[in-house]
Task: structure prediction
Amino acid sequence: MKGSTWKRAGYLYVMRFSNGVVKIGFSNRPEARRRAIEKQPNMQGLSVHLSWVSGWIEGAAYPESYAKAFLGSGARPSNATEEFHLPLQTVIAAAKCGLALHVVLGLDE
Result:
């Protein structure tokens, strides 16, 4: 990601697709992001449920990146980096760990 992306504020979210895939990401409007994903042509027939959303985060790309790193070692990503074939609670736990690391490192200030 480019430098300015790393500083963007927003919400960390976890979404579950009706086919079992779980996505992690960040957005300043997670519900609008969910609707946009659901309308993509490759999502025909799939529903998307916004399963978990953090509070507002400064530099939201950092905890997203940490969570993906936690998941990457044991996951089978269904695309480049954001969608995983893992239990929903596992992905939510990784998101919370990424958020905690973000706070411990002081990047949320």
Notes: The two ends are 20 Å apart (CA to CA). The chain has one domain: 9-104. The chain has a mean pLDDT of 83.
